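Hi C.,

You asked whether I'd gotten around to modeling the 314-residue construct. I have! Everything is below, sequence then structure, no commentary in between.
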Amino acid sequence: MAPSPVQKASITQALLQFDNELRRTSAWYQWEADEQYRFAIIHDGQRYPAKKILSLAAPNSQQKLTKSNSTNGFLRSAGFDLQCLHTPTKPEFIKHEVYDRITEINDFFGGNRQSGISLSRKSAAIFLFSGLAGEQHGYHDIADEDGTWYYTGEGQKGKMEWTSGNIAIRDHAKLGKALHLFRSLGKRKGQEYLGEYVCAGFQPGKSSDSHGAHRETIIFILKPVETTLKYELADEPLFDEAQSLDLIKLRNNAIEAIDLSTALKTKELRTIYSRSKDVKRYVLARSKGICESCELPAPFKSKIGLPYLEPVVV
């Protein structure tokens, strides 16, 4: 819903209040250099902190906006121009907060503003968007009680193929790309951040395309990262297991583990937990207790006294 004229007038009054009461105070001196203020309203050649202005215009508005709209989306729909002051080095979002897709997601990190699968050009990230608007094109995304999402791939007409965004989701672990899932709250209401996910597999589906014709689809099985980490923390230490296995065999297991095409051929949807464990075994065995970044011995010990290192994707 667009802001009413009264709301627009309140924002304009808040801009004047900031100029008269705050701009020259020590608390707001050179506020634009502070990285906690990521966006500025541009008005009559001056910059104003977006969230502060909105709080002056409508006290307690921030709590309401995080549930129904984004600050930037609200201000843009009210007719105010916004400028990005600080571009983060990687996507960092807060679960269940609402973000404006243009200014807070795609302007920062690149990617198609319209597609449900948006590949960032500036960071190792893939943004996934789910919402009712996609149902007209046959996209029916479903979430389980455990947080698993069954996310429909891209392609509005005919059978879905392994191209572009579908390949990106399938191979995101191999490519070192993080999957960030958002739920659209409706036109101009913003995108609710649901969290970072991993692709645990995929399965065939059926739906109607944008012309109403029946077609085959690709359904991705997405697991929350925190669920994956929970299972990893419950695992037994892997370094001692890896030492007794052949390094080449471990490497082959790791490559096979992150190749989801193998799962399709064998009609098995192995979980991301098993793949993570295979990759971790290989990386730990290869390191032999030496950090591969700084080339120094592991600074910590595991519960059973073995070198502790954290495998990461680079």
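If it helps when you're writing up: Confidence is low (pLDDT under 50) at residues 231-243, 260-275.

Thanks,
B.
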